[in-house]
Specification:
By secondary structure, the chain is of the alpha/beta class. It contains 14 helices and 10 strands. 46% of the residues lie in helices and 14% in strands. The strands form 2 sheets. It has an 8-stranded parallel beta sheet with strand order 1-10-7-6-5-4-3-2. A two-stranded antiparallel ribbon has the order 8-9. Helix 10 runs parallel beside helix 11. The structure holds zinc ion (ZN). Zinc ion binds next to loops.
Length: 332
Amino acid sequence: MTDRLQKLLDNRDWLLADGATGTNLFNMGLASGDAPELWNRDKPEKILVLYDAFLKAGVDIFLTNSFGCNRSRLNLHGAAEICFELAERSASLAREAVDKRTSQAIIAGSMGPTGEIMEPLGTLTFTRAVEYFHEQAEGLKSGGADVLWIETISDKNEFLAAQEACNLANMPWCGTMSFDTVGYTMMGFTPKNLVELVSDLQIKPTGFGANCGAGASDMVLTILAISEHKPEIPIIAKGNAGIPCIKEGSIHYSGSPEIMANYAELARSAGARIIGGCCGTTPVHLERMKDRLEKKTNGSKPTHDEVRELLGEPSFQPGEKKRVKRISRRRK
Ligand SMILES: [Zn+2]
């Protein structure tokens, strides 16, 4: 299996990844609570529109509509039996979109969490988690994904299960975690823990880093925390377009295209080589991000004051013993 993403990274300093899938599909009429993956079968024309909008914005990498394409999640929608087909279709539609534009963009097969809690806190065994992810990985591979893209993971064991599935499918892979809880993942994992985890793996990811979380300023601080440990593997930053808020009954994100352009520039200066958006990031945001990355040269690492000034107040201060605070807050 040739790693097209690795080849691109060998020739370019930075790459632009895509924006949101879920929030953009909501804007296209997906109802809250519905599985976006079912649209691969039921409304493929809309998925093609979303993919094409990212390609038109000039992304180098875009993710397939397969975040929740695993047996566990789709079981909630009575679609467990077709998870392979839906994953396959998400990638074959991506291939169709790429071919139509004669684009060279990399198709990354998105693999989000199973939605279950793993042992010992929950009941999902490691073996079962690998099976879920492996089925999804094979579907994405069969549909024509170039690379598999594990994302929004909080639990170390779930990350390990997903990467094992990528290896079983004999596919190159990337992996990002969501540091959405004052600089930690929900399960208490730190950026440093993630660097150590991927550095120790036998089959290393093509890229790794962070996605989603709590806004652009938190994301840049997370990337600084990762790059501090000087990992050899390229770092990925896919931050949300600010913070979600409810306006007239629907979800809006606070991050303007200008803020996201600032974010892209700072994320790159902080050490990220693959830069994109997550929830709330539209093709309009991406165009501005690309424009900024092209016009500005890579600067020195941003200070925390610069991050605050250009992106707004982060939800945490690096170096603070937030876990102690979290525990004491929970006890109240
Ligand atoms: Zn997100």
